[in-house]
Amino acid sequence: MLGKELGKNLNTFENDYVVFDLETTGMNPYDGDRIVEVSALRVVNHKVIDEFSTLINPEQHITEDVVAVHGITDDMVKDAPKMKEALTGFLDFIGEDILVGHNIKSFDMNFLKMECMLQFDGKVPANDYVDTLILARHCMPEMAHRNLTVLAEHFGISPEGAHRALVDCRMNQKVYECLKAETDKFESGIKTVPQCTKCGKRMVIRNGKFGEFWGCSGYPECRNTMNISR
Ligand SMILES: [Zn+2]
Predict the structure, then answer these.
(1) What are phi and psi of 174, to 5 degrees?
(2) In this structure, which residues have their CB less than 5 angstroms from ion ligand 1?
(3) Where are the alpha helices (DSSP H) in 120-190?
(4) Does residue 102 carry a catalytic annotation?
(5) Were 218 and a residue from 85, 173, 185, 222 both cysteine, which residue would form a disulfide, CB within 3.0 to 4.6 Å?
(6) Is 96 exposed, middle or buried (0-12, 13-18, 19+ CB in 10 A)?
(7) Distance CA 12, CA 228 (A)
(8) Ligand 1: distance of its center to the CA of 139 in Å?
(9) 146 phi and psi angles, rounded to 5 deg
């Protein structure tokens, strides 16, 4: 769904959503890096019911160091649809659904935003979205690293074939559901986090200039922080 502004970042657990993932030619969409693959899974009532996946001809060279990450070569994308056609298919697939993805707030959403602006007269994807990396910070404070494969392994999900978009979508869909189960443990008291010594609210993991720390969930009313000991 296109609109004037990007959708809101939600930290929620949804029953129905679309998980998506992109592979790209580099890290920076503002510096001309482009999307080479987009995949998505439609989930209804926690079950995957449909999938979408396409390679994209980025009309630029895919460098060796990037091929080493996802394995997608110039040759593989030379006959693939170009950006506008591929994105039109993706936008049709996602409709108005809430999007879910790993590290999408600072990576994938920026790529989608840039590419859509270029292809669709300055319009951007307006779907609200859930970033599982941000959710994992809340649900898995005990873990020092929370990239997708680390989380998958932690939950006993096979990371085989990681770094191709559809495989990462399947992995992340399971991770998202596992994060929901972790959150339920907080509610039932099986898993706990420190309480704020000033206001009594739950502490949450936050990321600052010098790494992660516990911050009060009552922020900005309460600005209490604590160091993490793992
Ligand atoms: Zn507090």
Answers:
(1) -70, -40
(2) 196, 198-199, 201, 216, 218, 222, 224
(3) 132-139, 148-154, 165-188
(4) no
(5) 222
(6) exposed
(7) 24
(8) 18
(9) -135, 35
> What structural domains and CATH numbers belong to the chain?
2-185 (3.30.420.10), 193-226 (no CATH)
The predicted-structure confidence for 188-209, as pLDDT tens digits, reads as follows: 888 888 899 999 998 988 888 8
Q: How far, in Å, is the centroid of ligand 1 from the Cα of 220?
A: 9
Query: Which pLDDT does position 36 carry in this prediction?
Result: 98
**Cα(119) to centroid(ligand 1), Å:** 46
Distance from the CA of 213 to the center of ligand 1, in angstroms?
14
pLDDT tens digit sequence for 117-160:
999 999 999 999 999 999 999 899 889 899 999 999 999 999 99
Q: What's the CA gap between 93 and 18, in Å, rounded?
A: 9
